[in-house]
């Protein structure tokens, strides 16, 4: 039986059962990097980034996202370009988080669904305009934490250094918004 015949006869449930052992193996690899669930909080994407960047994590939600072999810490953010063109930050942004962020470089990774497209690195001085704006907003709002302020991909592309591209790629071009983004934009503009 050829692979094509096998696939045509296979139900979705059978395909899932055939593939699931590979997913378990992927989770075992992720667990070595202290990622407890590849399906939660971009765990599968973070595993790929940690391996590419040579970083590790302690597996907790405290502190910054990753550390290198010299003890330098990093913040890592991802975006799925099929859904949006900005990176979310922290769901309770406040001065204590900003202090933590000011001390580290950031890695920004853009994916198209699950396919990594590019990794940028930004230094703290390229993030300072955001930190100052967030601090001001926090104080102006009477000490109310900010829910996931965003960092536009355009800013990352303008100020960041590309540190990884897929093999054979000559560069990264910001894609135009996909149909999902256009539909969301139209809904937001409607009264």
Tell me what you see in this structure.
There is one protein chain. With 191 residues, the protein is an alpha+beta fold. It is built from seven helices and seven strands; from the N terminus they run H-H-H-E-E-E-H-E-E-H-E-H-E-H. The chain has helices at 3-9, 12-32, 43-53, 95-102, 128-140, 153-159, 179-189, and strands at 66-67, 73-80, 86-88, 105-112, 115-122, 150-152, 161-164. The strands form two sheets. Strands 1-2-4-5-7 form a five-stranded mixed beta sheet. Helix 4 packs antiparallel against helix 5 (128-140). The protein is globular and about 60 Å long. Mean pLDDT is 88; it is low at 181-187.
Please give the share of residues in helix: 40-55%
Q: What's the pLDDT, averaged over the residues? A: 88
Cα-to-Cα separation, first versus last residue? 57 Å
Strand proportion, as a percent range, falls in 15-25%
């Amino acid at each position: 039986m050829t692979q094509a015949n096998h696939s045509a006869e296979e139900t979705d449930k059978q395909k899932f059962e055939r593939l699931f052992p590979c997913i378990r193996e992927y989770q075992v690899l992720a667990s070595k990097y202290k990622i407890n669930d590849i399906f939660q909080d971009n765990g599968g994407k973070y595993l790929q980034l940690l391996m590419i960047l040579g970083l590790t994590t302690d597996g907790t939600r405290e502190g910054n996202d990753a550390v290198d072999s010299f003890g330098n810490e990093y913040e890592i953010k991802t975006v799925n370009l099929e859904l949006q063109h900005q990176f979310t930050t922290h769901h309770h942004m406040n001065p204590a988080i900003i202090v933590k962020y000011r001390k580290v470089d950031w890695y920004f990774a853009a994916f198209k669904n699950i396919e990594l497209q590019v990794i940028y690195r930004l230094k703290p001085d390229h993030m300072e305009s955001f930190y100052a704006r967030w601090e001001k907003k926090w104080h102006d709002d009477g000490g109310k934490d900010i829910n996931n302020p965003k960092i536009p991909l355009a800013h990352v592309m303008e100020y960041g250094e590309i540190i990884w591209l897929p093999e054979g790629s000559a560069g990264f071009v910001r894609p135009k918004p996909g149909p999902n983004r256009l539909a969301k934009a139209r809904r937001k503009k409607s009264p």
